[in-house]
Task: inverse folding
């Protein structure tokens, strides 16, 4: 009496700058020995087990590791970037954009709020207020029945974290799942979902290069929930709906035309 | 490399009036030999197989078949009623209401738009325009990435169906999945989702006692998709979030209080 | 080159319990010498001037001051209640409900979240977490282009206020305008809009019997903005859309029926 | 007892191609002697009188008529384009984008769905299905309390119009105001609102170069309602919220920081 489901193929993308730059490398090696991408991928495997297959891709690879083949076989892409957003090739961004409209899930993480792909999908500046200074972050669930909030304490407590505050210039989310508060009294819409085309997008702000947030068990859980929620029902052969306009054949007289729109 | 999931326990509710009334019985026996509830349950099993377990409940049973035990072991309840809405016991409605807020999924079908439970959950009159007169209904998908629209043609064509038209007095749906048109030129928001408390609600209008709509393969598919979408992650031990206000313990000085809200 | 608009007729409702009860009367007379309703009405007149006409109504009046005549000539009703929700007559609640669906604006204030009318309109428990204990509340704007946020600082600072915290069991608001944080680290969706039928509803949580919040200039401004936003375009002769189902006349052949739905 | 409001400054933009091209000029001169832009501007003045001031701008003008001065003094911009979307300068699109995020209202009309500015603001392909072939369009109101639907019949009947059908690849609208049906049985979300940054956007599909839709009294009314709804409260000195990230000053100890975010 069991149901068998294919594992979700996740590609974890990272600009991989702090991990490789002389200024940050040593501290990062302590905090994230396999890079932020390695930590995120390990967390997904830890929570989801055989329900997930992970691989990673980084900015320095050809086509940033996001070739047509990789995108075509990716159910959910997670995106982490911070200071190298400008170095991401517009052609790759366009391909990722099209893949999302075609149904690929996308998790945009933390400073990825200012990535080209997130701004392009949302159409706003995606700017926010911030401060990196010993804040504690409390992550409160405001949609307790949402799959992404499943099994998460109320609040999640992150002892040390960068502050992200409102106003966060995004469209009204389709669903607001989490709101965070910080020691300074700021608030932030820290967990938001958006549907664009056939694709599902989850933005989740906790997670930083300076704090070991991706090792936090509740954060791992949220990311795993997010991946499951964003994964398309149809795992391959996706095409973007309506990237071009579609001329519909004539109808006959005043009668209904059941072929219309096909 | 497989993931095992528990089957979804569905209770299919029907007022069971047309099936038993002298005026309609004979025609109904031709159209729905096992009742509308029997047809809906069979359709779910046909599409979902071992992923679902179904039982039925009807108005004439003690507590309308919706005892505490039944509700506690129901993941998703489907509701079909038409002329006997007024006979549904308010105490049962209150229990179903609480169960939905606690996480039980609810599919409200066709004329169930005027049921006590739907009006109570939505807070509006839920009235609409209608005509029972040889219309063809076309059901167009406006959220192609939504799990409920998975595998459904665009449009679904229902050769004969009662017309339901706007204005449909409901709150703006959380997600609008389907819009229908009818031969008379009317339109209707025929597939709508709502979250209330921890519960997910899907209203779907196609389906009628006078037409064999619940045997239509695409309609079976939509109902099966709806059941999967509405099923809670947590399949038992659900409690409504916050049916009463909760006094939060004092905080200490100006410091954060991680226990708050638990 | 000027546009002339009719003044908005506002009825300010208060249960008027704390103002008259032996235990609270003296403190209330200091804080709100004309009652909470008097303070709210005065604030509206101060901000809106000739653009508004106010009157008040209280629980102890016949029909709680909300007769058919009063409701028919009210553009926007504001509702404040706390411990006497249970004493509000269901018949009056039903009339207010119908008036809102017909287009009357409604502002539900602070502890009014647990009023019969708010629960009936929203369909959820409307429960929340709370603590009355020296919190400071910061009210952050998350929809800076919304008319209700016009002219409001970011954040509004309320030095002393009762804490209201998540999870607040309401449907996802149509628009989320404000999020508050409190000294204890809690967050709350403190400014929310909902459309129900033809009516516009604004819930705003700041405001309490124990603190002089309704004298705060920014809070007065938000309430005035809320009244302007909630006021219907059509100031009289409103009828609820579709409180009953409407049978639509036959159409002719396969042709369009322009009269449908009228 | 009157309220005085400043007139709304509207700039009506048109690519002005069909009006000037040899192939279409003669027919257009019959249908729209002052161009589509002239007809739209005249309709706004007819309905709104002294509440509006209009001017027009076209593709062939320097900076397409949308200089910094024009944008800075525009409360609401209306956009009509069809076959010349590609000729609109990206630099002008960027300025319009910024103006909208800063609070300028935007009405995107008919084939403007495929304009650069609309795609950029929405982040999706904005593609749809279409047929130009003797359809009648019925425009049904699904948000009767919305200011944009004020005074509009249900349905609006447009005897001859191009068909626009679903799937329309847009984000879920913040508010869905109108749904249209066509002779062929197709449906379309024909009236949609979106908030982006401080700006309000209204997309409205009825209106075409081949049919005299902008002379239809109900369509004029909808456009006038749309302009009033989209006009910002603050008529000048607007700045986009958060086009850049904002570093927030330190907080002191564990205490609240009322200056945060300013």
Result:
């Amino acid at each position: 009496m069991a149901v068998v489901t294919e594992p979700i193929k996740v590609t974890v993308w990272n600009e991989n700058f702090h991990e490789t730059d002389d200024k940050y490398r040593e501290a990062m090696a302590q905090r994230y020995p396999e890079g932020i991408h390695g930590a995120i991928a390990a967390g997904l495997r830890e929570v989801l087990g055989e329900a997930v297959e992970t691989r990673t891709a980084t900015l320095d690879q050809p086509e940033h590791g996001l070739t047509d083949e990789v995108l075509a076989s990716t159910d959910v892409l997670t995106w982490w970037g911070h200071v190298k957003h400008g170095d991401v090739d517009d052609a790759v961004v366009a391909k990722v954009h099209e893949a999302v409209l075609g149904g690929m899930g996308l998790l945009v993480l933390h400073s990825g709020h200012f990535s080209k792909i997130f701004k392009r999908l949302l159409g706003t500046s995606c700017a926010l207020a911030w401060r990196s200074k010993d804040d504690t972050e409390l992550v409160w669930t405001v949609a307790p029945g949402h799959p992404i909030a499943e099994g998460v304490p109320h609040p999640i407590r992150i002892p040390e974290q960068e502050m992200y505050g409102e106003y966060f210039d995004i469209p009204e989310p389709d669903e607001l799942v989490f709101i965070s508060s910080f020691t300074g009294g700021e608030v932030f819409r820290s967990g938001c979902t958006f549907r664009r085309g056939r694709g599902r997008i989850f933005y989740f702000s906790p997670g930083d290069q300076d704090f070991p947030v991706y090792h936090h068990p509740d954060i791992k859980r949220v990311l795993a929930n997010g991946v499951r929620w964003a994964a398309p029902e149809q795992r391959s052969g996706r095409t973007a709906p309506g990237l071009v306009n579609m001329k519909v054949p004539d109808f006959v007289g005043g009668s209904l035309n059941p072929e219309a729109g096909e």
